């Protein structure tokens, strides 16, 4: 079943950030950086082929890295900091393209850290998020002093999550208004890839069937992300991401997903009775296929954080 992407981390976790931005060609910068996106593209650009509403709807179906982190914890595997990106690498990300991608990566890392209650290392990731978010002009939505105070006390984790959700929702609205969907797209992609990368590392250790099933379900998400990334593919950086995402899609080619619809359930939400369709996904995936998928995800993740 596809799960809604939710905000969290010790300031984030899976991200629903979308606005609008078609693919402008980015300026090629000097040095070894192979990505670039003009800072002006963070503010406005040409009309979208996809509407804001369509982008917002499809992104709602992207699986949350926090859900993945919860499954990882349930598998019984120990927390491993070595598989996460390092906040000190932020200084190497000298284009807006790389910063937005790695804002997503560090956000997913923080979701993983938060799930395991590792509050001793939360602050360094919060500071990394702060630097990256400010560099792409969205840092104004976070009260980092309050977040830092909450992050250092495990008793405040619920409050930390609540504030994080509120902050990212405000950021989402702002990005929509400012026509900056390209930034949102990169953050979402970075978070999603990092969540799968962490899960893939655990699968290699445990062969956990529930995690394997959840990664298998992501086959549908590839198509969603490719639709949106292709929307900006006139920019060579986005075109590169599309090419690499296509390699992951190829690894998923033989995976089969069937959906079983159960009886609709009635639930109360905010005082209103609503009907929810119960769905169960069945995934057919071999060990060879999962190995190929994890390999391609790791390749793209290494490309993002390099």
UniProtKB/TrEMBL annotation:
According to UniProt, the name of this protein is Lipoprotein
Q: Which organism is it from?
A: Plebeiibacterium marinum
């Amino acid at each position: 079943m596809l799960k809604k992407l939710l905000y969290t981390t010790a300031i984030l976790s899976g991200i629903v950030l979308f606005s609008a931005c078609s693919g402008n060609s980015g300026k090629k910068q000097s040095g070894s950086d192979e990505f670039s996106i003009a800072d002006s593209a963070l503010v406005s650009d040409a009309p979208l082929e996809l509407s804001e509403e369509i982008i917002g709807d499809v992104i709602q179906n992207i699986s949350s890295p926090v859900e993945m982190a919860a499954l990882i914890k349930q598998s019984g595997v120990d927390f491993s900091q070595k598989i996460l990106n390092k906040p000190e690498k932020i200084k190497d990300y000298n284009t807006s393209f790389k910063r937005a991608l790695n804002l997503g990566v560090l956000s997913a890392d923080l979701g993983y850290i938060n799930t395991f209650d590792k509050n001793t290392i939360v602050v360094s990731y919060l500071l990394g998020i702060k630097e990256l978010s400010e560099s792409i002009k969205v840092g104004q939505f976070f009260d980092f002093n309050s977040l830092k105070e909450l992050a250092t006390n495990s008793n405040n984790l619920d409050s930390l999550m609540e504030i994080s959700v509120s902050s990212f929702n405000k950021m989402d609205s702002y990005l929509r208004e400012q026509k900056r969907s390209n930034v949102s797209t990169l953050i979402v992609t970075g978070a999603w890839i990092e969540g799968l990368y962490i899960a893939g590392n655990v699968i290699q250790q445990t062969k956990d069937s529930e995690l394997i099933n959840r990664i298998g379900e992501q086959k549908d998400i590839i198509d969603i992300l490719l639709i949106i990334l292709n929307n900006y593919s006139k920019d060579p950086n986005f075109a590169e991401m599309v090419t690499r995402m296509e390699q992951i899609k190829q690894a998923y080619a033989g995976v089969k997903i069937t959906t079983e619809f159960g009886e609709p359930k009635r639930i109360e939400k905010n005082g209103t009775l609503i009907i929810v369709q119960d769905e169960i996904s069945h995934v057919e995936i071999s060990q060879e296929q999962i190995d190929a998928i994890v390999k391609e995800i790791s390749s793209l993740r290494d490309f993002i954080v390099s």
